[in-house]
Amino acid sequence: MKIKKVIALVLLSVCFNNGMALAATAAPSQLSNSDFIDNGVLESDSALGDTLEISGILTDDTVTRFGHELFDAFNKSWRAPDGVRYNIAFNERNDPVRGSFVTVKLNELQIFEGFLTPRDEAIQELGKGLARDIRSLILSNANIDEELY
Length: 149
Prior knowledge:
The protein is α+β, with helices and mostly antiparallel strands. The chain has helices at about 1-15, 45-50, 65-75, 120-149, and strands at about 55-60, 85-95, 100-105, 110-115. Helix 3 crosses helix 4 (about 120-149).
């Protein structure tokens, strides 16, 4: 039983060594939950306002060199449109027989799928073309939304 108390005290002193350490003589049974609760104040959503708005997210879930090269080519050519929310996700499955199968989604809508050729020039051109086409698609959808509302 003494070993458990010593281990608990050592763990507590390691975890709370920045001026928040509990008294070394306190046994674990003497500690309450309030010793571990931070009573700080969290800012509410209304206090934060629009500062947490994210204008766009790009995710790379590719697994092969060719998939990473495609995402890099896309990312180098990508010019994010201002004031438009979007998520772009690159996913890849590697098929040992047919090669890398890549899908690209824009806001959960699959807009591209296909097998990658192992030619660097073709991957670079595909990445540039995807960046151009996705930007056009996002801007045209934003213009349609403005006209409807």
